[in-house]
Design goal:
single chain, 46% helix
Length: 322
């Protein structure tokens, strides 16, 4: 017997077991095989990472997919690649800059005019732990893009979503929301020393609170809304954290990251599940971690905070009568 066979066999078993463990920790694939023939889906931030993989998966299921992105060159390239890979020619790129309320309004206007129905809206785009930047309208960048831009977009498309019912809204939050706090005295970090991590956590908490209040307002309309934590994924989102450029992270924590950090494809499974799963028909106002519903942070379940944040968000984006 070759003395090398046993070690190689054991190595193969160990690697296979590690992969299975990693996928178990990260969460599994969407169990639903439902298709989206005749359904229109909007995915923001769909040119890369989780958004691109979500758009790809939903295109495979036959949907009319609209990639809504700031960088049109990358967006067009992603749409072309998805069309080629899926042979679904109903995949198109549209310009949307969530750091500009003007752009959000222009995008929504075109969707309302050009699309007969909108069945699924996936608010996926995000910025994470960027420097102290502000949006075109003067909002702190993470609050502006992650929450306020999507807040306005969703509200502008609500009538279309209601007319397309049953329809679904999916908001990508993060486990980081548990460390967040809504500071109504200084939402835009104009009075305090800027803390990019705290600003990110606040924006992700705002998304869960928005989901809760919107769900309350949508009762009886046939439109559902849920929030999710996709898991920590290997995407461009973390480019401002220094995680990928740190020698310590790469060499010391590398094996841990490999085990716990998802691929974009695996991270997209939660969004896909919430978009298509038959067993989630009528489920609304919930928070999902992977494929499982979980309780969010206590502040995320505070109805008074949710109502107050809605009112303040509507004021900031100029949404009247809300």
């Amino acid at each position: 017997m070759n003395r090398y066979l046993l070690p190689v066999s054991l190595l193969g078993t160990a690697v296979g077991s590690a992969v299975l463990l990693r996928d178990y920790v990260a969460g599994g694939a969407c169990p639903s095989k439902a298709t989206l023939q005749g359904k229109t889906v909007i995915v923001t931030g769909a040119n890369t990472g989780i958004g691109r993989e979500t758009a790809l998966e939903l295109a495979r299921r036959g949907g009319n997919i609209i990639l809504a992105c700031r960088d049109m060159e990358k967006c067009e390239a992603a749409a072309k690649a998805i069309r080629g890979e899926t042979l679904n020619h109903h995949v198109n790129a549209r310009h949307l800059d969530l750091a500009s309320l003007k752009s959000v309004r222009e995008f929504a206007k075109k969707i309302i005019e050009e699309e007969e129905k909108v069945h699924v809206l996936i608010n996926n785009a995000a910025v994470m732990r960027c420097p102290h930047w502000t949006t075109e309208d003067g909002f702190e960048m993470q609050l502006g893009v992650n929450h306020l831009g999507h807040f306005l977009l969703t509200n502008l498309l609500l009538d279309k979503l209601k007319a397309s019912a049953p329809s679904r809204i999916i908001n990508l939050s993060s486990l980081a929301h548990v460390a967040g706090h809504i500071d109504f005295e200084d939402l835009n970090w104009e009075k305090r020393k800027y803390n990019t991590k705290a600003a990110y956590c606040q924006s992700k908490l705002a998304i869960v609170l928005f989901t809760r209040e919107l769900s309350r307002r949508l009762q009886g309309t046939g439109v559902t809304v849920n929030a999710l934590h996709p898991g920590v994924a290997r995407t461009e989102l973390g480019r401002h954290t220094g995680m990928h450029s740190s020698a310590f992270s790469s060499f010391t924590l590398g094996p841990i990251f490999w085990l716990l950090v998802k691929s974009p494809q695996l991270a997209a499974q939660t969004s896909t599940y919430l978009a298509v799963a038959e067993d989630l028909e009528g489920v609304s106002g919930k928070y999902f971690d992977g494929l499982r519903e979980k309780a969010p942070a206590p502040e995320a379940e505070d109805d008074e905070v949710a109502r107050r944040l809605w009112a303040e968000s509507a004021r900031l984006v100029g949404l009247k009568g809300s």
